[in-house]
Every structure is written in structure tokens, then in C-alpha cells.
Design brief:
By secondary structure, the chain is an all-alpha fold. About 75% of the residues lie in helices and about 0% in strands.
Length: about 425
């Protein structure tokens, strides 16, 4: 393997951990235990996107390592559909949005994998607005529900917290890629560039990206319907205290809501439009034969509209499952229980890692402790020396009987030994 390709793959593995890609993603949903503003600022808008930024900034290296680019594209596309499939089965409102973040990071990476670095950065930019909005909106819901996060114990909240409800709609419409909203411009450009790249990795990413668009719309509206619509499922005490959040919490939501609506249409020209050359200048390198953004301008109209069709279909299916026929999800979960449990348990990554790493580490640690430390080090070291000293002292103490005739006999033996020593000829 060429050194440049190996270096790029190793750098990307670091980015996988930083940006929660498949296999190194398990920390991100667990990080949702933290405060919601931390989730919005760090886990959606800044820290987790640093891996994407690094790959895009290192485009002069990746452009000359096509095998590494292929790895980036495959991992990104697979992560997008993996995280979306898990998100549609979660019940914790913050975990749904966390897996959505993981999925959208997959979009950014497979954009980089087809050399659409500017589209990846565009989606990074718009995603910061609508995903931070969704996280803070979820925080507003949790605040209203007295710290309840399980969507199965919500419902019927739309008229009790109408401002939060409206802003969650804005964030969800942007996430689902509905026209006018910010996510539409960046996500559609990623998908168009993936198809236009003409590579096997690009087509693979495009197909998974379209399916992910369907799943994204589905879990977004599942969240909206389970949280805000239907009959209230919370207890009377919790419902009695439901109230709209104070303005100190709502003002940031309005600011992010503005970005979730207008960031795409305002920045499209500079990020991926005609002004991208002047905007990016030399910060990103794309070889002429890899310019998928330019090729995306010539894709057929069906490629342009497929993401929207997939998104609208996902919204429709969510309405059927959770509004028109609310008993349908439970019936499907019982009918396809193995698949449901597979998604609910996050593809069993936690159980797999527990068996491979956690239990192995415990067994290794216990072996080193009991055998290495207790038996060998302590046994031959401090404990062994101390035990030997005690045993020698115990044996020596048996010579001290306290009887005079024993001591006289010992002295006689000594005298005999001394006389014998002098009488033995030398």
C-alpha cells in the first residue's frame, strides 16, 4: 500500500472516532447524558464535525489517494443508513437526535469520499443550525415535561408549548430536506454530487443516501407525532406542570430557527454555487477529473427530485404509522420482532464490544492481578520474603527451650567441636 494512502486511511480512522462513524460511534449517543446545550453546541455543531473539517482540509492529500477516498465514501454511506435505522427505533428524544447527528455526519463523509468537499462543508454549516435547534428544542420539551425524555410518556403537547412545537417543525423540515429550508440545499447537493461522480462508491453512497433520506424524514416525524400529537401519555402531575420555556431558552431557538430556514439559500452561492472558487480559493483542492460538484449541474431531474420524494414518502409513512393507524408500529414490532430488537439494541454494537473488549479487559486485568501481581510479584517479592523470614524465625525459636541442661549440652557440643577442630591434623 502506498505511504500516502496508508497515511490518509489512518488519518480518517482518527476522524471516524472524532465524528462518530460506524464502529467508533458508540460514545456519541452515550454523551447525550450531558446537558442539552452541550449536546447542541459540541455534539452537533462543533466538536463532532471536526473530523469532517480535517478530511476536507486535507483534500490535497486525499485527492492523490483514491483508495483512501473510497474508504471514506463507503464508511460514510454505511454510517448514514446505519444511524438512521437505529434512530427510527429509539424512544429517548435526545438519543433519536443523537443518532440523527451520526447519520448526517455520514452524509458529510461520503460527500468528501466523492471529492465534494465543499458540499460536505456546506452540510456541516447548515447542519449546525437545524441540529442545534432540534437539540435545544428537545431540551425545551424535557424542561416542560419535568425532565422526562421518553417519548412514550409524552404526547398532546403541541398546544401547551406552541413556540417549541413550531420551532421543532422548522428543524425537522430542514433535517428532512424540504425545499426552502437549509438542509434541502446542502443534502441535495451531496446526493447529486455522489451520483454525478460516476464511481461505484458514489453510486453506493447515493443509493444509501436516498434510503437514509426516507428514514430521516420518518424518524423526524415519528418524534414530532409521538411528542406533540395524540393523547397525552404522561401522568397527571407531569401534565399539570407542562409550560412553555422562558425567553432565555426560546431566544436561542429563534436565532437557530432563522439559520435553519435561511442558511442554505443565503450560503449556496458561496459554498457550492458559482462563487465557490473565489470563496474557497486554495483551502480545498479538487483535481479536475474528480470535480463532482461541477458534474452535479448536469444530472437528470429525477436525481434532483429523488431526495425530496424519499423525504415526503418518509413523512407520509410516519403519519400513517403514528397518527392514522397508531397500533400499526406495535403490530409490526411483534411481527418482525428480531428486526425490531436488532434496531432497538443499536445493531448490538454495545453487546459486541462488551464481549470483545470489556469482558476481555476484565479477564486480562483479573489474571494480571491474581496471577501476575498476587502470585508472582507479591509471592516472590515482599510477601515471599516476609513469609520465609517468619518461617526461619519460627524454626529458630524452637531452639530456645528455656531448660539449663539443654543450653549446657549445647555448650558441651561447642567445646567438643572446638577441641576437635584443634586436634585435627592440618
Amino acid at each position: 500500500m502506498p505511504s500516502l494512502t496508508l497515511a490518509c486511511i489512518l488519518l480518517f480512522i482518527g476522524a471516524m472516532g472524532k465524528s462518530a462513524q460506524l464502529g467508533l460511534h458508540t460514545w456519541l449517543p452515550d454523551a447525550m447524558e450531558g446537558p442539552t446545550p452541550v449536546s447542541a453546541l459540541i455534539h452537533a455543531a462543533t466538536m463532532v464535525t471536526a473530523g469532517v473539517f480535517m478530511v476536507c482540509r486535507l483534500s490535497p492529500m486525499f485527492e492523490y489517494a483514491p483508495a483512501a477516498l473510497a474508504v471514506v465514501g463507503v464508511i460514510g454511506g454505511t454510517t448514514a443508513v446505519f444511524a438512521a435505522s437505529v434512530g427510527m427505533a429509539q424512544n429517548d428524544i435526545k438519543r433519536v437526535i443523537a443518532y440523527s447527528t451520526c447519520s448526517q455526519l455520514g452524509y458529510m463523509f461520503f460527500a468528501a469520499g466523492v471529492s465534494a468537499y465543499t458540499a460536505a462543508m456546506f452540510h456541516l454549516f447548515t447542519h449546525a443550525f437545524f441540529k442545534a435547534l432540534l437539540f435545544l428544542g428537545a431540551g425545551s420539551v424535557i424542561h416542560a415535561m419535568s425532565a422526562e425524555q421518553d417519548m412514550r410518556r409524552m404526547g398532546g403537547l403541541w398546544n401547551k408549548i406552541p413556540i417549541t412545537y413550531a420551532l421543532m417543525w422548522v428543524g425537522s423540515l430542514s433535517l428532512a430536506g424540504i425545499p426552502i429550508f437549509a438542509g434541502y440545499y446542502s443534502k441535495d447537493m451531496i446526493l447529486s454530487a455522489s451520483w454525478a461522480s460516476g464511481t461505484a462508491v458514489g453510486r453506493y453512497s447515493f443509493c444509501l443516501g436516498i434510503f437514509t433520506a426516507f428514514l430521516t424524514a420518518f424518524y423526524s416525524w415519528r418524534l414530532l407525532i409521538m411528542t406533540f400529537h395524540g393523547q397525552p401519555r404522561a401522568d397527571e402531575e407531569t401534565l399539570h406542570h407542562v409550560h412553555e420555556s422562558p425567553w432565555v431558552m426560546l431566544i436561542p431557538l429563534f436565532i437557530l430557527g432563522f439559520g435553519a430556514v435561511f442558511a442554505g439559500i443565503l450560503a449556496d452561492h458561496w459554498f457550492v454555487g458559482e462563487g465557490r472558487g473565489e470563496f474557497w480559493k486554495h483551502s480545498i483542492l479538487v483535481l479536475p477529473q474528480h470535480d463532482s460538484i461541477a458534474a452535479a449541474e448536469h444530472v437528470s431531474w429525477i436525481i434532483d427530485y429523488l431526495p425530496l420524494i424519499a423525504g415526503l414518502l418518509g413523512i407520509a409513512v410516519a403519519y400513517v404509522c403514528y397518527s392514522l393507524i397508531p397500533e400499526l408500529p406495535s403490530r409490526l414490532a411483534m411481527r418482525f420482532r428480531a428486526i425490531y430488537l436488532f434496531l432497538l439494541n443499536k445493531w448490538y454494537f454495545d453487546e459486541l464490544y462488551d464481549r470483545l473488549f470489556v469482558r476481555t479487559a476484565f479477564s486480562l486485568g483479573e489474571g494480571l492481578w491474581k496471577t501476575g501481581d498476587a502470585t508472582i510479584i507479591d509471592g516472590l517479592g515482599p510477601d515471599g520474603i516476609a513469609a520465609a523470614t517468619r518461617e526461619l524465625a519460627r524454626e529458630a525459636s524452637r531452639l530456645q527451650t528455656g531448660y539449663v541442661y539443654h543450653y549446657a549440652f549445647a555448650m558441651l557440643i561447642g567445646v567438643v567441636a572446638l577441641v576437635t577442630w584443634y586436634l585435627v591434623p592440618r
